[in-house]
Amino acid sequence: MSKKVAIVILNWNGLKMLQTYLSNVVAMSADSADIWVADNFSTDGSMEWVVNNHPEVRTIQLDKNYGFAEGYNRALRDIDTQYMVLLNSDVEVTEGWLTPLVRLMDENKDVAACQPKLLAMHDTNSFEYAGASGGFIDRYGYPFCRGRLMETIEKDHGQYDDATEVHWATGACLMVRKDVYWKVGGLDGRFFAHNEEIDLCWRMRLMGYRIMVEPSSKVYHVGGGTLPKGNPMKTYLNFRNNLTMLYKNLPEKELGRVMRVRWWLDYIAATKMLLIEHNAGDFKAVFRARRDFNNWKHDFDSDRLQNIGDKKDAALLKPYSLLWQYYAKGIRRYSDLP
User: Fold this and answer.
1) Of 222, 181, 199, 204, which is closest to residue 86 (Cα–Cα)?
2) Contacts of residue 68, Cβ cutoff 8 Å, sequence gap at least 6
3) Which parts of the chain fold into alpha helices (H)?
C-alpha cells in the first residue's frame, strides 16, 4: 500500500553516492515513505546495484539523460502520493527527519513546499551552500540563504532554527505537494539543471502559496553533484537559467531596470573570472549564457504572461543588492543584512 510520502532520488551515474547514502535513507525513512530511485540513463551499473541490493526501493528507468528538471518531471508522473520529496543522492538524512516536514505541510495547507535545515557533510557544524536554512534572492536575482552569503558559509549555532517563510527551498531536499507541483507545471525542463527549484518556488508563490523551511528537520549534504564548482557548464547554466528565471517571473515595472543592471554585473563578473581568477572557461561561459538567453528568452513569453498576469508579486525578493551588502559593506552573515 502506498504511503503519504514518496522520496524520489534522481540518479545519473551516481553509483558511489547510492552505495554510500541509500542505505541510510532506507533505514531512516522506509517506515513512513515509499522510496524511489529514478535513473537518467546511467551507464555505471548503478541501477543494477540498487535492484540487487535494495529490493525494497522502487525504480524508474528513463530512456535518456533528461537532466535534473525534466528527469524529475518524467519520474514524478508515475508516482501517486500526497507529498513528494526530491532528494539528492548525496544526502544523509537523520532519524525522524520526515516528521516535522509532514507536520508542517499537514497543518498549513497554503504551504506548497518546504525544506529541512541543510548542513555540510564535510563539516557537520556548518551550513551547506545549496540551501542552508532557507533561500532568498536579492533585487537582481542573486540567490543566498540563511547561513550562506555568496561564498561565505556560517557555522550553525541554532541562529536560524525558526521555521519561517522563504523565497525558495533547496532542490537538494525539497518536499512538495503533488497537486501544486503539477498545478504550476512542475520544474521547467528547459533549464536542464540549476535555478530550476528557485523558479518553481517563485511560480508557486505567484499562485498564492507559501514556501517554508523547517529546521527541526536536519540533513547533511555533500554538494557539488555531477558538476563541481568551477565547471564552465555549471557557470553557463547558472547564468543562463538565472536570467531566464527573472524574465519569466519579474513584474513588468521591474524587468527592464533589473536586466540593465544585470548586463553590467554579469560582464563585470566575467572580467573578474578572466583577469583575477584566470579562468577563461568561466569567462567564456558567461558570454555564451547571455547570448543564449537573448536567443531563447522570447520562447518564455507565454510563461511570463501566465506567471505574472494579474497575480500579486509575492516573491519575497529582498529590496537591496546582495553584491553591495557583501563587497561594499562587508556583511558576511544573513542576520546582519538589512
Assistant:
1) 181
2) 10, 171, 187, 192, 193, 194, 196
3) 15-29, 46-53, 67-76, 98-107, 178-183, 196-206, 232-249, 252-275, 280-296, 301-308, 322-323
pLDDT by 10s per residue, the chain, length 338: 569 999 999 999 999 999 999 999 999 999 999 999 999 999 999 999 999 999 999 999 999 999 999 999 999 998 999 999 999 999 999 999 999 999 999 999 999 999 999 999 999 999 999 999 999 999 999 999 999 999 999 999 999 999 999 999 999 999 999 999 999 999 999 999 999 999 999 999 999 999 999 999 999 999 864 445 568 999 999 999 999 999 999 998 899 999 999 999 999 999 999 999 999 999 999 999 999 999 999 999 999 998 876 565 555 689 999 999 999 999 999 999 99
Task: Find, among 31, 41, 44, 34, the residue nearest to 8 by Cα.
Answer: 34
Q: Model pTM?
A: 0.95
For 67-100, the three-class secondary structure string (H helix, E strand, C coil) is HHHHHHHHHHCCCCCCEEEEECCCEEECCCCHHH
CA–CA distance from 254 to each of 73, 77, 139, 199, 312 (Å)?
Answer: 30, 35, 9, 17, 13
The dihedral over CA atoms of 21, 42, 198, 23, expressed in degrees to the nearest 10, equals -10
Q: Is the dihedral of CA 165, 186, 103, 123 positive or negative?
A: negative
158: left (phi over 0), alpha (psi -120 to 50) or beta: left
Residue given cell 528557485 in the structure block: 198
Cell triple for 98: 520526515
Classify strands 164-166 and 111-120 as parallel, antiparallel or unpaired: unpaired
169 half-sphere exposure, CB direction, 13 A CA radius: 29
Give me the count of residues in the chain.
338
What is the amino acid identity at position 132?
A
Q: 130: which residues sit within 8 A by CB, 6+ positions away?
A: 118, 170, 171, 172, 221, 223
Alpha carbon separation from 167 to 21, 186, 199, 329 (Å, rounded): 29, 17, 10, 23
